[in-house]
Specification:
The protein contains 22 helices and 19 strands. By secondary structure, the chain is an alpha+beta fold.
Length: about 600
């Protein structure tokens, strides 16, 4: 097994003259390995220490504490050479923030590995890739030395180990790229990879721009939720006080006869006295419990959860440099191809919550919120080719109302909110592989009544049932499913001796039905992001993509061009939808406001 002690061929660049001299070597090749070393993981405040560029078997290690990088700007921003990087988003961000360089075409080994092993593994670190493809055991502990306070590297005094480590990280990228690209070709995943690589600069720019938040309004909303939570608590206490008398004494000698609503033991005891035997006090159990106190307890917990999830913890993430939030968008956060979001997670903020309106546009700007209308149901219509689904979208009839009309055998104009909600729950629930028990709980019906409703549904939309059944079978038969864009999600087949075998098989069937729908939606949204970003650049708009939540895209644009940019966003989102959907029209809802709202 080869180890990291092998000789590393690199040249240290410490002067402007040396940098200019190596330009011809970099410009003449088709691909370069690229890596950076900084003092922090935050590109906005990190100091760029080294830039490593690997050409063939040799690496140039540029000392950024002594050398100004502008001579490299034209070649790094060009389409060619292709820039091969591991986690290219970080390299893009630090080079843009600290050197004013925006990387041209990139190939990201980390994203490529995620595409290749989607559903099978999440071992996508450079260390894991070096071991898998090259049989090299990388020692990544040296990286920590770049982050140490008082590090001599800050003054251009690098150790031999630091320089070799930096050069090697860039050099090994070529061979990993060659081996990965062959697999991408064999698995027909090149288009998916191209899409993800095109999204890298878009995401990097979104993170660098960040979002502005009205802190005063945010705190006022927390206080409002706290009032509602306290009122809900008081209401429950007043109703139940006659049943219990815990008379708890706190550390200061204060006596309390209230119930601790966060104590499962006290709650179970209280419900027992109410004549309700519960196995536990989980949300799922309380949702099934037909008692007013259970409903009120869920309401109390809802307020409590909102306060703890979106309280001061979000405000703590505001960056001291520009007073904006800079979340971490994870491109392939889910095996469907959907984004995930961290630090903070903006995807968790409910659309109907008051918190969304606290995200505001900068002075002189507007926020454009655009989201696809019922995109997953349109995808279902496309893949199943069900005539009733197709007709509803082509005639622009509300699908949920139409479904309710057909299921309950009533005229469309007689469908009420309850019937539409039941139809909507089934329309969406089926894409997530939900059965009669789960659906019955949501729409307030018994399992038997829910099953009968499903039978009527499937007799109405026969092709939907056929497609769902086929996808579940295909997931088990072939071990993978694909989106309309070609994205692949593989499954690990369980051993028949596994006691959970049937449960695992059912899970694969469910995911096999859901992934092509949700994954195609992710593909469409990503194409839209690329199209919008390209147009903003091409037209030189004073506008910025700032975040995305599933099938929703938010853009910040200068107020006087907000209408023009909104029209462009709508057009590009429709264009992205039409790339994959041919049988149904694409509809996008666009809203211009001073804050993030639909």
């Amino acid at each position: 097994m080869e180890t990291q002690t092998a000789q590393t061929n690199f040249q240290l660049i410490e002067t402007q003259d040396e940098l200019v001299k190596i330009l011809p070597e970099i410009e003449k090749v088709q691909t370069i390995g690229l890596d950076t070393e900084g003092t922090k993981l935050d590109p906005l405040t990190s100091r760029l220490l080294l830039l490593q560029i690997a050409v063939g078997e040799k690496a140039f290690v540029v000392d950024c504490t002594k050398v100004e990088l502008s001579p490299l700007k034209p070649v790094l921003e060009a389409v060619r050479p292709l820039k091969i990087a591991q986690n290219a988003k970080f390299d893009y961000s630090i080079l843009k923030a600290q050197a004013g360089i925006t990387l041209g075409t990139v190939y990201d080994t980390m994203l490529a590995e995620r595409i290749i092993t989607c559903g099978l593994s999440r071992e996508i670190s450079l260390r894991a890739l070096a071991d898998k493809y090259l049989g090299i055991k990388l020692d990544k502990t040296i990286r920590e030395s770049f982050y140490e306070p008082g590090n001599p590297a800050l003054h251009g005094k690098f150790t031999k180990e630091q320089l070799e480590y930096a050069a090697r990280d860039a050099l090994i990228l070529h061979e990993i790229f060659r081996k990965q690209f062959k697999i991408l070709q064999e698995d027909d995943l090149v288009e998916t990879a191209k899409l993800e690589f095109a999204v890298v600069p878009v995401v990097a720019e979104m993170e660098l721009r960040g979002s502005l938040i009205d802190q005063k309004k945010w705190r006022a909303h927390i206080a409002e939720l706290a009032e509602k939570r306290n009122a809900s608590n008081k209401e429950i206490q007043d109703e139940l006080r006659h049943l219990v008398n815990y008379s708890q004494v706190d550390l200061f000698g204060n006596v309390s006869d209230s119930i601790n609503l966060d104590s499962p033991l006290q709650l179970l005891d209280t419900f027992k006295k109410l004549g309700v035997e519960l196995p536990n006090t989980s949300e799922a159990t309380l949702s099934k419990t037909d008692h007013p106190t259970a409903k009120k307890l869920l309401e109390y917990r809802g307020y409590e959860k909102m306060i703890t999830s979106f309280g001061e913890s979000i405000l703590e993430k505001i960056h001291p440099l520009d007073k904006r939030l800079h979340p971490d968008f994870i491109q392939l956060g889910a095996d469907t191809g959907r984004f995930a979001c961290n630090n903070p997670n903006l995807q968790q903020i409910p659309a109907e919550s008051g918190f969304r309106s606290c995200f505001i546009a900068s002075d002189g700007y507007k926020l454009i919120t655009a989201d696809y209308s019922q995109i997953e149901l349109r995808i279902m219509a496309e893949v199943s080719e069900d005539p009733a689904f197709l007709e509803a979208f082509n005639k622009d009839v509300d699908l949920h109302t139409l479904t309710a009309s057909q299921m309950f055998r009533m005229p469309i104009d007689k469908v009420d909110k309850e019937k539409r909600f039941q139809a909507k729950s089934i329309n969406f629930g089926l894409m997530y592989g939900r059965g009669p028990a789960s659906l019955g709980l949501q729409i307030g019906l018994s399992v038997e009544d829910s099953r009968k409703l499903l039978d009527v549904y499937f007799s109405t939309y026969k092709k939907v049932k056929r497609w769902l059944d086929n996808m579940g079978r295909d997931a088990l038969r072939y071990g993978y499913v694909r989106t309309l864009g070609g994205r692949k999600r593989s499954f690990i087949m369980p051993d028949k001796t596994d006691p959970d075998y049937q449960k695992l098989i059912s899970s694969i069937e469910r995911q096999g039905k859901n992934m092509p729908i949700q994954g195609t939606s992710a593909d469409i949204t990503k194409y839209a992001l690329v199209y919008i970003a390209d147009t903003i650049k091409e037209k030189n708009y004073d506008a910025y993509l700032i975040h995305t939540v599933h099938d929703e895209i938010v853009t910040e644009a200068r107020a006087d061009i907000a209408d023009e940019v909104a029209k462009m966003v709508e057009e590009k989102m429709i264009e992205a939808g039409k790339k994959l959907l041919k049988l149904v029209p694409i509809k996008v809802d666009v809203h211009i406001s001073d804050c993030w709202e639909k």
